[in-house]
Every structure is written in C-alpha cells, then in structure tokens.
C-alpha cells in the first residue's frame, strides 16, 4: 500500500502504535472486558469512548454540586481548613 | 491506565488552593457561584497536574473565554497560564494520521471482500464510514481543543484526556468523602461536648 512520506521528518506512525492506542482505549471503557478485543468496530469504539467521556463530565458536575452543598455548611475555621492547610504545607 | 499518585496529589493541592482563592466556604456565594468556582478549580487543577499537551491548552483557551475566570486561572496555574496560552505549532503527525488510522480501523473499501452484490458491499462500508465520521465529530466536540485534531492525534489526546478526567473524578470523590467525615466528626464532637456540659450542670 502506498505510504506518504512526511516532507519534514522521516518517522511514521506504525501499525503497532495504532493498535496499542486502540487497545488502551478499549481497556479504559467499562464494557471492554466482556467483548473480544478484535471484534470491536471503529464505530462502536468511538461511540463508547464518547459515552464514557460524557459520563465522566456528568460525574464531575454531580460531585461539584455535592461539594458545593458541603462547603456551604462548613465554616472556614473548621477541621476542613486544617486538612487543607496540612495538605498545602506538604 | 492510571495516573501516578503525584498527579492526583498535585490536582488535589491546586484544587484546594482554588477553593481558598475563591473563598468557597464563605456564606456570601450563591449555590451556582460556588459550584462554578469548584468546577473551575477542579479543571484548572487538572490542567496544572497534566502540564502542556493539546487538550490542556484547549481547555485553558475555553476557560479563558470567560473574563471572570482569569484571576482564578492565574492563581491556580501561575506561570503555566501564560505558557499554556501561547499558540503551539501543529504536530507533524497530522497530515497522514487520518489516513493511516482509518486504514487500520478497517475502513478502506479496498479491503472488503465482495461477498454479496457489488451494490450491497458498497453501501455497508459507506454506512460504516459515515457513522464513524459522525462519531468523530461528536468526539471532537467533547475533547478540549479537539476541533483542530485528526486521526491518531485525536485518539491519542482522547485517551490522555479520559485518563486525566477519571483522576479528577477520583480526587473529587475522595475529597467529598473526607470532608463529610470530618464534618460529621465535628458535629459529633460538638454534641458530645454539649452533653458533657449538660451532665456537669446536673
């Protein structure tokens, strides 16, 4: 198969790099263990990757809500402030 | 895939710094103001922990669009803010990464065997390619800075971003747990002290 040569540098993205990247992505996704790795289609991989990222976004939003609730009930002279100070000191 | 503990620690520290800078525990903020400050702190902290890569630059760019965010961003990122805001040269991998990636994902029609009629084979691989194209567009919108990425770079940065996001979630969860526990301890302590006082008087 014809391969374009880069006009600036001679390194290429190898097939190995690509399959490694794809398998790393698959191992991130929650359902990857059930399915056989080689069967995954590009469309499915992309769909699950997008779902995964969206679910992480939602979680961050939810955790921000809960932290916001919690912070409002704490005063700044509390153990929380001490925890913060000790972490920032290290 | 996991991030090192140093990443999570850096994320936590900068996020807490952000909380302090925006005074999240003060009473003067509305719920939404507080939530936005928390979320912004979490994102800036994630950028700080990760350092310079395409998606972190993309994230800084989009967070900077809101003028109100600038102070907190500078406070958390320090010198990194300027560095991450500079335009960066495009990766040399781009021109060929789309073609190579699509080849390996089995999308080239050349590879498909003619098992059915010519018409059938053509439409199924065309559909597959269209679906993939559509989903790539979705992915580009989800990934900070994704609009300017293609093929290999896009997927590589996606992996990097997803791993960092997961770490951000883990850190926030743990902070929530610890804060709740310390809050509970404080209240229990207060109750105990009240009971003791009450008992002493009687």
TrEMBL record, chain A:
GO terms for molecular function: protein dimerization activity. Keywords: Growth regulation, Transcription, Transcription regulation. Pfam families: bHLH_ILI. SUPFAM superfamilies: HLH, helix-loop-helix DNA-binding domain. One of its GO terms (biological process) is regulation of DNA-templated transcription. Gene3D superfamilies: Helix-loop-helix DNA-binding domain. Belongs to the bHLH protein family. It comes from the Eukaryota. The lineage of its organism: Eukaryota, Viridiplantae, Streptophyta, Embryophyta, Tracheophyta. It comes from Musa troglodytarum. InterPro entries: bHLH_dom, HLH_DNA-bd_sf, PRE. Residues 2-56 form the BHLH domain. PANTHER family: TRANSCRIPTION FACTOR PRE, TRANSCRIPTION FACTOR PRE5. This is Transcription factor bHLH135.
From TrEMBL, chain B:
Residues 1-26 form the signal peptide. Residues 5-66 form the IBH1-like N-terminal domain. Keywords: Signal, Transcription, Transcription regulation. InterPro entries: IBH1-like, IBH1_N. It holds the Pfam family IBH1_N. This is IBH1-like N-terminal domain-containing protein. It comes from Musa troglodytarum. PANTHER family: TRANSCRIPTION FACTOR IBH1-LIKE 1 (PTHR33124). GO terms for biological process: regulation of DNA-templated transcription.
């Amino acid at each position: 198969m014809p391969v374009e040569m880069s006009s600036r540098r001679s390194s290429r993205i190898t097939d190995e790099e690509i399959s490694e990247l794809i398998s790393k992505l698959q191992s991130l996704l929650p359902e990857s263990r059930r399915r056989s790795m080689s069967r995954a289609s590009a469309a499915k991989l992309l769909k699950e990757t997008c779902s995964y990222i969206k679910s992480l976004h939602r979680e961050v939003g939810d955790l921000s809500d809960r932290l916001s609730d919690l912070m409002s009930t704490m005063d700044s002279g509390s153990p929380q402030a001490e925890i913060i100070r000790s972490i920032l000191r290290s | 895939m996991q991030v090192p503990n140093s990443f999570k620690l850096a994320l936590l520290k900068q996020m807490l710094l952000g909380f302090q800078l925006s005074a999240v525990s003060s009473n003067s903020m509305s719920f939404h103001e507080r939530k936005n400050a928390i979320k912004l702190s979490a994102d800036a902290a994630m950028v700080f922990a990760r350092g310079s890569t395409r998606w972190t630059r993309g994230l800084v760019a989009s967070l900077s669009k809101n003028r109100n965010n600038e102070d907190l961003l500078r406070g958390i990122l320090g010198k990194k803010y300027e560095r991450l805001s500079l335009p960066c040269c495009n990766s040399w991998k781009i021109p060929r990464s789309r073609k190579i990636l699509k080849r390996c994902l089995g999308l080239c029609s050349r590879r498909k065997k003619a098992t059915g009629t010519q018409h059938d084979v053509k439409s199924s691989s065309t559909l597959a390619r269209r679906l993939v194209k559509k989903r790539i567009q979705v992915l580009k919108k989800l990934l900070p800075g994704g609009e300017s990425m293609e093929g290999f770079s896009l997927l590589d940065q996606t992996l990097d971003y997803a791993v960092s996001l997961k770490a951000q979630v883990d850190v926030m969860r743990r902070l929530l747990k610890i804060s709740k526990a310390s809050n509970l301890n404080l209240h229990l302590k207060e109750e105990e002290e009240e009971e003791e006082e009450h008992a002493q008087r009687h």
